[in-house]
Amino acid sequence: MVYRYWCGECGFKTAWLGESQGEQQQVEHYAKQHPGIPPGGQVETRRRGPDGGGGCTALAVGIVLLLLILAAVVRR
Questions:
Q1: Separation of alpha carbons 29 and 22, rounded Å
Q2: Res. 7 pLDDT band, cuts 50 70 90
Q3: What is the C-alpha to C-alpha distance for residues 69 and 72, in angstroms, rounded to an integer?
Q4: Closest residue by Cα to residue 40 from 50, 29, 49
Q5: Distance CA 17, CA 20 (A)
Q6: Which pLDDT value is given to residue 56?
Q7: 33, 10 contact by CB (below 8 A)
Q8: Which burial class, exposed, middle or buried, applies to 68 when counting CB atoms under 10 A from its CB (0-12, 13-18, 19+)?
Q9: C-alpha distances in Å from residue 27, one per residue of 12, 19, 49
């Protein structure tokens, strides 16, 4: 799982990183850009890295194959 942290004070966001790395970048950003304000904002999660994915594609291909098999069986 990878995480992206968004600043609650400005438009800053971290890259997709591991949880501790993203959190550390957010803490460093707040210390530099918003001193005295505790880190806040949002956290996005993703199951795979930025190059990952394909889960929906695999599901769609599986459904198409299932429909083709079903159509071939029904035609007989």
A1: 11
A2: very high
A3: 5
A4: 29
A5: 8
A6: 78
A7: yes
A8: exposed
A9: 12, 12, 22
Asked whether 58 and 26 are in contact (CB, 8 A), the reply is no
Examine the pLDDT at 50 and tell me if it is beyond 80.
no
Grade residue 54 by pLDDT with cuts at 50, 70 and 90.
low
Structure tokens given for 71: 């159509």
Q: What is the pTM of this model?
A: 0.61
Q: Rounded CA gap, 8 and 3, in Å?
A: 16
Mean pLDDT of the chain: 88
Residue 76, token pair as written in the block: 């007989």
Encoding tokens for residue 73? 């069986």
Contact 37, 25 (CB under 8 A): no
